[in-house]
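Look over what follows to help learners.
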Amino acid sequence: MLDPHIALAAAASPTLPAPAALRRRVLVAGGGGRLGSAVLESVLAEHRFERVGVLALPPFNSTLRRLHPVAPEASALLAFGADTALLVFDGERHANGREARFVHPRPVDLLPLAQQLLAAGVRRLVVVVPHQPALLPGALRAGLASLDETAVAALGLSHLIFMRMAQAGGAAAAGSFLQRLALGLLAQLHWMLPQREQPLRAGQVARFVAALALALPAAPTGTRVLSPEGLWDWAQPEGGDAWLNAWLRGEALPKVRTGAQRW
């Protein structure tokens, strides 16, 4: 559910005419979970997007001026006309019946959904992939981790970002008893991870996603993978936009110190 303060601000703020270059449309897939809803709030707070869409099953009524529910059919995606899509793999919430109307993509949906988005005109795709650091080797955190990710990278999107967002213990509820037991034990050891691999708060991750979506048009084209360490560096006082822009351009990154995170 959207934060009431952000929802009221988005509804009350005037719609200012934007230059053509800034009349952008962004689509959020997976906006119903804890992280997905935070991403949706952060994108709505950025008024440089002309319209913000969210994949949802009809009927889905929104009172926010710039929030538009988009059905997961090809015709609806094409009609909305998003130039950027944010795909968030997140757990479902059951706070109220409205949460069930959001489309909740699963990892197996990555390739077909990316193909559908590309056919609808999307040229920039950000994929937020929560994972347990103890279960994913370091080499895969910095590169493509599956055949589906490799296939998506070959689709021809102008910008493709895979974000490896560390999470603690969220997957322990699924799978067999032994799988749940193993994941539960690993979750208890999360404090043994290096500081730069520790999970960030959903709000921090969401603000990065919104900043990334805004910065992509000016960035060189290509496929990039952001590790949990990179996300942590951005969240430090020495990080922020300077870190993000340098990372997108492939330049030397600002040095950050270990210590308290921003926000």
Observations:
- Confidence is low (pLDDT under 50) at residues 4-21, 132-140, 169-174.
- The chain has one domain: 4-10+20-249.
